[in-house]
Amino acid sequence: MSNWEEILHTASGLGTSLAYAVATGLPVEHPIYTTTLFAVVAINDGFEPTEQWCAALASMEPSIKDYWSPRALPSGIAEVFAQRIAHTTGVRVPKVTLSDTEPVTFGSYVKRVAGGWITSERVPQSLPVYFLREQCETLPPEQFLNGIEMDGDDDDARDTMRLQYLSLIDKRCPHDRAAYHDFPEIATDHALVAARWDSPARLRGHAFRAFLHATYAHSSNYLVDVAGQGWVIDFEKILYRDDCEDIRALRETVNSSPRALKECRRINQLSERDIVRGLAGFQKRYWQKPASGEGGAVLSNEKAATDYFIKRLKVWRECFSTKVLSNHSQMIESGSLVQDSDRSRAGVLL
User: Which helix (H) or strand (E) holds 109?
Assistant: First the structure.
């Protein structure tokens, strides 16, 4: 059994639950796939899965009810909160504003949310990486899809399921390419470097979303500009957890990849004051349950939300301290990293 099969078969029933989710129309942009993405980074970096590592990943397999996890925050507040604290971690998020009446604006994106409207400013000379998949590797290696399993030996059904899954992680942009007319048809070298599926900027964005427990950042949620700067959008779905086991599982996953670990440790730059300021000052109507059927959020007031994210920050710091780096050094010394021949046999892109 190859390393890829070990991670996506032995380490989980992720493929089974994923196949069920796709087949039944459940939302599969679950945060677990951010953790899985980091697992792929670790394997691509040459890490040989250990029993403990596989167990940590397997523990995150979402049950069917988890696909319908309630939101932690109302969508409008979630968007603004993410934008307020992102810059501290080195993640770029376009400016967003809340208003009680529908704004009349050009060149920005407007959406109805609980209590009013949210406006997201457009980033000049930027483009979702969805449109760059023919110019660089914007998606993880094909082995990322090998966890999809189905009963029987129906290869056609399995291939169909993989294509459906691919359409979700490489989600089609709701706007035509013409909407980004100020971005050149042939991207700059800087933009292509930032657009790669495992670029530092993209891993940083994934780490930030993992801290929030936001949905997976598909190809239309990440943009690059001509200068090579990455931008992350769409934080309306920050899902609620009553524990922080997702953070601990992520720690076990990235413990084997120095570059993934580096980006996760950037979240440590956040302070409790950042959380407090990020959630302060929202008018009561923005905390209300929306009439559109979006569903209410578990955290319906400033204090509850502040306590919740401060708790997640404390656990994140415990998990991604300098001790984690020393653990990785010990793994190297003990020979836990696979040799080049093993990488080749696993079919890993280098």
Answer: strand 108-113
